[in-house]
Amino acid sequence: MQTGKSRWTVLTADWMEIQRGCGVQTLSRVSRKLWPSTHPAGAGRSSSQTRGRCTDQVSKDKALQTVANLSSAQIVTATVVKPQTQFPPPVRVRLEHTVKPFAQLQYTTLFGPPPPPPRPAAVTTSVWQDRTIASAKLRLLEYSAFMETQRDRDTHQHLFVHMGPSNPSFDDPILESIDVRQIYDKFAEKKGGLKELYEKGPRGAFFLVKFWADLSCDVEDGSGAFYGVNSSYSGTENISISISTKVCSFGKQVVEKVETEYAKLDGGKFVFRIHRSPMCEYMINFIHKLKHLPEKYMMNSVLENFTILQVVSNRETHETLLCVAFVFEVSTSEHGAQHHVYRLVND
């Protein structure tokens, strides 16, 4: 049986250019419309309340000046993490049910209220399309990034972000939409960037995910913890796929990981599973440095310019099967990691 392969590529970036825009910036009107910094209702205090923890304007300005030197590109350079310990396959960990942000926040959409859903008999597309991260040929089943530690003989897993399987029906509303042109500058715009990919299409394969990441865990440099990513997909064809994951800072690509996975027939469908794929050292260092910031609003200031672009394509034909753009904020919810999904459109 063939197994998937992966490789990491670290790009040499002009760090000074990346740092140039590194001052803490307030969100633009467009960004506020796309993903307001306010967390889902009841999930934590407002940013104004958090900022109120600076006792006066002088101390606040001093704190912000500290964060001004911390882009995702610069933040990872100070500390080197020891190689990860490869644990044996972990015991099954029970995951809490994913709690999504409260339904239908007032985000800007490009469409009016959707029409009543058609009867299944009259539908020509899958129930998954327009309701989940799915194109005509591939559907994202699950995605998670985690830290795993061992204490004595027990294995403990903390989920930074998580999207679990879903089973939508035709009665469920379609996903909200965002104009893809409003986020071009947050992702690599050169060859292979979001703009080029979207223009090539197919346009039904593009999505945006806003993650509220759960950082309520203890991370220690050199602790021997394992940092990994799990993802799985369901497809209509017996093919091999290529998964490219690009980390961007201020719209510039700094790291790319490329993995290859092969289809396995499961229940009449072709399934692709990537299990315990190790995070690169860049991402591990970034998480550690982010955790060392004293306030969550400081973390969010750094995350405002940190994005990830994941592209799944047919390995032989290079056809784009799915493209998912990720943006992040720190969760203040007692429920942990949360997320919200949008379709990317250009109408």
UniProtKB/TrEMBL annotation:
Annotated stretches, region: Disordered: 35-54
Superkingdom as given in the UniProt entry: Eukaryota
One Pfam family matching this protein: YBD
Protein name, entry field: TEA domain transcription factor 3
Protein localization: Nucleus
Organism this protein belongs to: Cynoglossus semilaevis
Family annotation (Gene3D superfamilies): 2.70.50.80
Entry-linked InterPro entries: TEC1_TEAD_TF, TEF_metazoa, YBD
Predominant place of localization: nucleus
Keyword ATP-binding assigned: no
Entry GO MF terms: DNA-binding transcription factor activity, RNA polymerase II-specific; RNA polymerase II cis-regulatory region sequence-specific DNA binding
Record's keyword terms, sorted: DNA-binding, Nucleus, Transcription, Transcription regulation
Domain YAP binding: 137-344
Biological process according to GO: embryonic organ development; hippo signaling
